Amino acid sequence: MKYLILLFTVFTIFSCTKEDRCQELNCDLLGEWTWTKTCGTIAGRTWTPESTGYEIHIKINESKISFFKNDTLTKTYEYEVFETDTLYTHGTLASFIKYNKITRRYSIENGTLGMYDLCFDCLADFFEKN
Q: Is 124 helix (H, G, I), strand (E, B) or coil?
């Protein structure tokens, strides 16, 4: 019986495909991203690498998100992603990322990652995939 349980466990572990793991992690999120702009505040301001004089990159792997400013690592956190509906999404499911006690809604469209603070007049950061 022990061997049957062991065989079943091994089969279960190896039957999980990369695609299964990708759905769990949202593989579109994984990789390196370059900041293109930040928009927001009640005044509707926009910041870009050109207007600030610095570049921001993020790297996201299966377990950590790392932030770089001008190619210098500034922060690394473990993260989790999940889907839920909120007042902001009017009853439809939205994707969220949580790291360092911060939760942000995110979306990926046409190679652009948008990360949104959870308030109506807060910031939204946009990144292009490298």
A: strand
Residue 118, both tokens:
């959870």
Q: Which long-range contacts (CB under 8 A, 24 or more apart) does 69-75 make?
A: 75/100
Q: Which CATH architecture has domain 25-129?
A: Beta Barrel (2.40)
15 neighbors 107 (Cβ within 8 angstroms): no
Mean pLDDT by 10 residues, the chain (130 residues): 41 45 71 97 93 98 97 97 80 91 95 92 95
Instruction: Find the angle CA(73)-CA(127)-CA(113) to the nearest 5 degrees.
Output: 120
- Helix (H) / strand (E) element for 83: namely strand 72-84
**CA 17, CA 112: separation in Å to the nearest integer?**
26
Residue 2 three-state SS: helix
Q: Is 113 exposed, middle or buried (0-12, 13-18, 19+ CB in 10 A)?
A: buried
pTM for this predicted structure: 0.78
For residue 124, the one-letter residue type is A
